[in-house]
Amino acid sequence: MSPSSAARAVLPAGPALVPQTCRLCGAVSEPAPVAVCAECLGPLEPTYEKSRRLPTRQEIARRAPSLWRYREWLPLLGEPTVSLDSGFTPLVEVPVLARKLGVARAFVKNDAVSHPTLSFKDRVVATALNAAVALGVRTVGCASTGNLANAVAAQAARAGLSSWIFIPHDLELGKVVGTAVYGPNLVRVRGTYDDVNRLCAQVADRFGWGLVNINLRGYYGEGSKTMAFEIAEQLGWRLPSAVVVPMAGGSLLTKLHKGFAEFASAGLVEGPAPRLYGAQASGCAPIVDLVRRGDGVLRPVVPDTIARSIAIGNPADGRFASAAIRASGGWAQAVADPHLVEGIRTLARDAGIFTETAGGTTVAAALQLARGGHFRPDDEVVLCITGNGLKTVEALQGALPETPVIAPRLAEVAALVPSA
Amino acid sequence: MSVQIRIPGVLAPLTGGQTALQASGATVGEVVADLAGRFPRIAGKLRDARGEPYPYVVFYLNDDDIRFHSGFQTAVKDGDEIVVVPAIAGG
After folding, report:
1. Could you give the maximum distance between any two Cα atoms of chain B, in Å?
2. CB A317 to CB B91 under 8 A?
3. Distance CA B85, CA A356 (A)
4. How far out from the chain centre does Cα B80 lie?
5. Same domain, yes or no: A249 and A295
6. pLDDT tens digits, B34-74
7. Using an 8 Å Cβ cutoff, are A147 and A125 in contact?
8. What is the domain class of B2-86 according to CATH?
9. Maximum CA extent, chain A
10. pTM of the model
């Protein structure tokens, strides 16, 4: 028996799941690997019992440092059985960045060090795989721009689940290797992410697998809320005044909006909800365009940017993200590729954090928003850094200074030191 | 023109359980109208009140999103394939 089949044989049955409700028409669906409403094709979202007992700040603080410390706001009815230790990444204050943004305080929510695969996708995959186990699904998968592929491959391997992972054929090497190493069925598709996504919608229908961002999407998305919960707890049970978020499909921003509202509703935090600012690369900015036009009609684009992890031309949650941004009093900003590369370097130098292209987009967008007068001197701004730069080193080729190569002689070092 | 149209499984109860159907028309919109005429319950899941594509599905003609062409006015030819998928997916 292979290690993975041995793991499958002992995989425990997961806890039950909460039902799902359509965001458009309100129809209720029993737990199933289905993400759209049979009545109107709107998105299904987990529905929580309003009368359920919620933990106090003190009870949450005593729990293990993982995303499951907020389990009452996640779709499992009981304890998780797999992916137990994702989440609770650092919230890092960066005074230099605060000065550049012209705000009182600036923080980085650092999911570049998320466990186990160095991106925020570990959060959503943790909730999705527990849903898969609960539903008796033993083959999982995804359509991915890279980070999700890494997270599904790693967490499925550990859980003893089979996985089928679909990515655009020309992704960055680090993302391909960082998926293949876990032994999934990895398929590279000739086309853009949007082509992969369409194919996976058909694959989920045909094979009945649990594709985390397709037919398990309702459960999957809820994991993103934990980033909002952590920000609030790590600020000392307070809300920031502004949050800058990279946007691909638009789900993360939408779920942050929901997460902050849920903590306020539970009485765990007080005060106004944060203004939400969305960031995209200029070469793929359909949600930024939608926010700025304000007409509610998403116009898909064919992506053309080095920010591959957020290169989704037909974002599923675009309209919801746009609505959340406008409702919060925030705005949206697109940045050109050279600026996002500079954003990567800025965060590295100012915060000691090496992020990937999506993070560079977020930093560059924040700086442009600051120049546009969107922040206030008393603001506390959080930048959501969702991925690790070691996965996309290609983005920095030619952007860094030449490194000297010397003989092992002290005189050659001295020649490099300006004051020597 | 006779084309194949594939619909998502969630809509199969509205077409007698079929997800791959033959339909005819000169444009994507006409093919959809033909299908909607034969299976009236699916009409509102494919077209909105103005007769435009329902916003929670995406239509692909031979793998291309019809929004990059002429939407429902996009011409079809014999043997083409139209794929309909829920818009809420991915990311």
Report:
1. 35
2. yes
3. 31
4. 12
5. yes
6. 999 999 999 999 999 999 999 999 999 999 999 999 999 99
7. no
8. alpha beta
9. 77
10. 0.95
